[in-house]
């Protein structure tokens, strides 16, 4: 019973404090794991900078894309942004 409880607690902590995103590395799609700055049940995130593609202007982003970037910045980097300017998008780049 104690092992089951420990396993459940470990699974909950993993869900709350670990996340991932997909990135194109050397022609292959890789899963990048990270420790979240803030706990959330969301595990999959979108990193706009992960694929070294051309970054669209903030005005061209859809409402869903904006929310993905805001979530990534908060949970991955601990940066609160409302994503109003292009500089806000660049601030969310992983250092």
Automatic annotation (TrEMBL):
Its domain of life? Answer: Bacteria
Q: What is this protein called?
A: Uncharacterized protein
Q: Which organism is it from?
A: Pseudomonas fakonensis
């Amino acid at each position: 019973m104690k092992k089951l409880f420990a396993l459940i607690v470990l699974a909950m902590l993993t869900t709350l404090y670990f996340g991932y995103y997909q990135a194109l590395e050397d022609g292959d799609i890789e899963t990048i794991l990270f420790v979240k700055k803030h706990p959330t049940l969301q595990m999959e995130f979108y990193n706009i900078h992960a694929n070294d593609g051309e970054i669209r202007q903030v005005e061209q982003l859809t409402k869903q894309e904006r929310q993905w970037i805001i979530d990534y910045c908060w949970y991955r980097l601990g940066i609160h942004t409302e994503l109003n300017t292009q500089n806000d998008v660049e601030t969310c780049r992983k250092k």
